[in-house]
Each structure stands twice: as structure tokens, then as C-alpha cells.
Amino acid sequence: MASPIIVFDLDGTLIDTAPDLLDSLNHCLRTVEMPEVSADEVRRFVGFGSRVMIERAFAAHKRALTKEQLNELQRLFLEDYSARMPGRSRPFSGVLDTISRFRKAGFLCAVCTNKFEGLSRKLLGALEMADSFAAICGADTFAHRKPDPRHLLDTIELAGGDRERAVMVGDSRTDIDTAKAAGIPVVAVEFGYTDRPLHELEPSRVISHFDEMTVELAETLIRSAADKPAA
What we know:
Elements (H helix, E strand, L loop, with lengths): L2 E6 L6 E2 L1 H14 L7 H7 L4 H11 L6 H18 L5 E2 L3 H10 L3 E5 L4 H10 L8 E3 L11 H11 L1 E10 L2 H10 L3 E4 L8 H4 L3 E3 L7 H13 L4
């Protein structure tokens, strides 16, 4: 029988990666004489991967961006970001205890992120967290990525989890939309990276610290989802 599972987003949910994403984004922008992005701005750019971060930075300054230029800037970004890993990135407060709590309760844990799988594994490995997850699935793991619900559902399947006893934990509209489309309850963390107020996105629950992400909360959300009539 498949196990219950908690699936986490990575950037802005498990790990505060904004300082390193900011450094690498600004490294790219300096090569084309673009104004640097601030720490507040970069948190609104995260969620869809490095290409979208670069595109949003150009759009914010009303600068044209060709496909060839984007490809080269993404290459520079990934080269710089990978080289500095883990850099200043650190788990959010309470993350390690939360993962341990759920694993002791018989839950699997997995990662579903729009960061490339190789970078995700490298980061979690550098932080000595990779072994905690039954699956680590990135933007290039499957032929689809968040907000496509198949990214989440295939992550659950690869991890050996039960999609009927699953909860997604994320920080952005991307995560919330993905979970809703998959029919899976979603807990949003309000300390992450989002360009919209979380309450507008109507997640199943919002938490302000991982201490609030309890086994009892997950089980309640799973039961509520099971009791909800089919659309």
C-alpha cells in the first residue's frame, strides 16, 4: 500500500534561496549593463525558473530581450548559480524538524520544483538534506512542469506515495494552482516568494512558520479533501 506523502516546493518553501538567486541574476544583468535587481524584487520573480526570472527583470525595466540573448543569459546564470552553491541559501526555520516529524509518522517526503533537477539535487545535497526525500523532481524531470498538475502527480507516483493521501506545501500561485488542478490540498507558507497576497489565491491553509505544519493538520486536510464531493 502506498504511503501518505508531503510534497514540498523548493525555492521560497524549503530553502531561502533568494540571496543566491539575486547574486546570480545580477551577475547576468551586469553583463548587459542592466540595473541590478533588489532583494524585494527578486522574490517576485521566482517561481517559474531562471528564464522567467531574467524575462521579468527585463520587463520591469522595459528592455527588449531576444531569444538568443535570453539563452546566453540563462547559461551565464546557471553557470554562476551552480558554482556558488549552496552559497548563502539555508533551510527556513523549522524545516528540518518538520521533515523529521512527518517521516516518523510514516509519511514520505518529496520535492516538486521548477528549478532544474540537477541543481535541486546539488543544493539539497550540499545542505545534507537530499536523503530525506523519496523523490526530487525538477523542471526537466518530466515533459511537463508546474503549474501542470502532472508534475505534482508524477512526483507523487515516482516517490511511491498515495495521491489520495497527499498534501502540497508551497509559497506561490504556481504551487497553489498546481495542487488545486491535481485535486490535492495545499498549504501555503507566507514567508516565501509570491507576487500576490496568499489569501487571494485561496490555498487550503496558510502558515507563518513550519511549526504549524503538523501531522494533525495534514491528516485533517486529507480527510477534508476525501469528503469533498466530486466536481
